[in-house]
Design goal:
34% of the residues lie in helices and 24% in strands. It has 2 domains: 157 residues, HUPs (Rossmann fold, 3-Layer(aba) Sandwich); 173 residues, Isoleucyl-tRNA Synthetase, domain 2 (Alpha-Beta Complex), CATH 3.90.740. The chain has 10 helices and 14 strands. With 395 residues, it is of the alpha/beta class. It starts with 11 loop residues before the first helix and ends with a helix. The structure holds zinc ion. The site of zinc ion has 7 residues, from loops.
């Protein structure tokens, strides 16, 4: 470089773009199975088309690129397969927020037009992501770029689903799940964010059907009482000795429900008696299974009260909460109402309060599927780096 003065500052623009074009034009990143050398491949964890790449992506893309380029230079036949993820409901929510800025909802638009808008978003967002990957210098095989909703991948998903179903590893069943009444979808435990919320604890009197005695239960969600099918106490709770088996009158609904005993009940909470709402509480769902109690669903998939809620049918669940409290006061069955700080689950996508609901869902039996995977790690066929994470994997 004698005689030629070097620029004081490094200008990535002139250099990186030129070299990236040079690499791709000559097909240096393209993998050819007929080439010699041991195979070394990474499938990119496909970025969601919900937005553009952030700093975290820049880090993990760089790490993958370092590995790929290192093994390529060692003479291995390397493939780094790029792609993007449709991310289903997450992308739908982003598009719905865009529509909201224009003052329209997906229902206004109708199914066909809404789907067209989602595809339009995918083209824009996905396009930005691919440009970003290229600007980062990622040495991906662009001739093999995929989208998780490509026909081939969708067929693979259907194939896997049907195979698992035929082997009895996928099944449908009634179960209590986290439900978002706005997204109208089930949420996994990881998709629920718990936030400390200022609410109220309502103490409600359930009279015995015959006699003058009653039981007081405490709840933060009085609207769910319309779906109660029992009241439970701990079998060791002296306060209720001799009373288990009595029949109570469920206020407002005026249905007879039994007083039962179950080890699950915490004697220290409130009066030691808890209402059992199998359709809207995971613990109560389990109690109902043990005692073969019926299940009454009072909140529907949009968060409105069902016909089972009687006079409250059709009301929004939160409006119903207030109405139920008013009625209990009028009937002199509200013993007390106290401020209560508790954790409430919210939908991580749209922040709506999650409603635990009994519903028919698909499940995967993970245990038999995990066994061979665990065996492979124990036998050293699969290696986890760093090794200390093996323990987490086995759990
Ligand atoms: Zn939601």
């Amino acid at each position: 470089m004698a005689g030629q003065e070097q620029d004081k500052a490094y200008d990535p623009k002139g250099i990186e773009e030129r070299w990236y074009a040079f690499w791709t034009e000559r097909g240096f990143f393209h993998a050819d199975p007929s080439r010699p050398g041991d195979a070394y491949s990474i499938v990119i964890p496909p970025p969601n088309v919900t937005g553009s790449l952030h700093m975290g992506h820049a880090l993990n893309i760089t790490l993958q690129d370092v590995l790929i380029r290192y093994h390529r230079m060692l003479g291995r036949n390397t493939l780094w397969l790029p792609g993007t993820d449709h991310a289903g409901i997450a992308t739908q929510n982003v598009v719905e927020r865009e529509l909201a800025k224009e003052g329209i909802s997906r229902q206004d638009l109708g199914r066909e037009k809404f789907i067209a808008r989602v595809w339009q978003w995918k083209e824009e967002s996905g396009g930005v992501i691919l440009k970003q990957l290229k600007r980062l210098g990622a040495s991906c095989d662009w001739e093999r770029e995929r989208f998780t909703m490509d026909e081939g991948l969708s067929r693979a998903v259907r194939e896997a689903f049907v195979r698992l179903y035929r082997k009895g590893l996928i099944y449908r069943g009634r179960y209590i799940i986290n439900w978002c009444p706005r997204c109208r979808t089930a949420l996994s435990d990881l998709e629920v964010s718990y936030e400390e919320t200022r609410g109220a604890l309502y103490h409600i009197r359930y009279p015995e059907l015959s006699g003058r005695r009653s039981v007081v239960v405490a709840t933060t969600r009085p609207e769910t009482m319309l779906g109660d099918t029992a009241v439970a106490v701990n079998p060791g709770d002296k306060r209720y000795s001799g009373r288990v088996g009595a029949t109570l009158r469920l206020p407002l609904a005026n249905r007879p429900i039994p007083l039962i005993s179950d080890e699950m009940v915490d004697r220290g909470f409130g009066t030691g008696a808890v209402k059992i709402t199998p359709a809207h509480d995971p613990n109560d769902f389990e109690v109902a299974r043990r005692h073969e109690l019926p299940s009454v669903r009072v909140i529907d998939e949009s968060g409105k009260m069902t016909d089972e809620a009687g006079a409250f049918a059709g009301m929004d669940r939160f409006a119903c909460r207030e109405a139920v409290v008013e009625r209990l006061k009028a009937e002199n069955l509200l013993v007390k109402e106290e401020p209560y700080l508790h954790n409430v689950g919210h939908c991580y996508r749209c922040h709506t309060v999650v409603e635990p609901s009994e519903s028919i869902q698909w499940f995967v039996r993970t245990k038999p599927l995990a066994e061979p995977a665990i065996r492979a790690v124990k036998a050293g066929e699969t290696r986890i780096v760093p090794a200390q994470w093996e323990k987490t994997y086995f759990e």
